[in-house]
């Protein structure tokens, strides 16, 4: 009886682990037609230096939402939520020094943000 219970528990753990891995893989793929997402939830990111323009922070995931402010090139932020696919962009909700809103990770040609290396 104990052996069956142990086997059942191991099977349940394996199923749960598989579900977590599949969810992680789905979030890593990102939006259809765009480059794979690189941002990680609950980790830091920063505005990439491939464009000298600051990155817009918006009220919602989309260019039709009001702009709340911006993050300068090299600015480090914390990823709160995402990825949301809309208007040919991958969007993440971030916190930059108390400014909380949505930023586009990139489009089909370029990344606007990048993961920030741990320990910096």
Can you tell me about this structure?
A hairpin with a 2-residue loop joins strand 5 and strand 6. The N and C termini lie far apart (52 Å). By secondary structure, the chain is α+β, with helices and mostly antiparallel strands.
CATH fold assignment: SH3 type barrels
Instruction: Give the overall shape.
Output: elongated
The CATH architecture would be Roll
Q: How many domains, in number, for the residues? A: 1
- Residue stretches low in confidence (pLDDT < 50, at least 5 long) are 16-27
Question: Gyration radius, to the nearest Å?
Answer: 18 Å
Alpha plus pi helix count: 1
Distance from N terminus to C terminus (CA atoms, Å) equals 52 Å
Strand content: 35-45%
What does the main sheet amount to?
A: 5 strands, antiparallel
Summarize the structure.
By secondary structure, the chain is α+β, with helices and mostly antiparallel strands.
């Amino acid at each position: 009886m104990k052996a069956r219970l142990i086997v059942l528990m191991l099977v349940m753990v394996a199923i749960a682990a598989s579900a977590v891995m599949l969810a992680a893989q789905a979030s890593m793929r990102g939006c259809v037609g765009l480059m794979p997402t690189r941002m990680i939830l609950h980790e830091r990111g920063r505005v990439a230096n491939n464009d000298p323009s600051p990155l817009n922070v918006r009220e919602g995931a989309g260019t039709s939402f009001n702009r709340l402010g911006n993050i300068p090139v090299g600015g480090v932020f914390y990823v709160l939520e995402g990825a949301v696919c809309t208007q040919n962009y991958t969007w993440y909700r971030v916190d930059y020094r108390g400014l909380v809103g949505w930023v586009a990770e990139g489009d089909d040609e370029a990344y606007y943000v990048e993961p920030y290396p741990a320990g910096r």
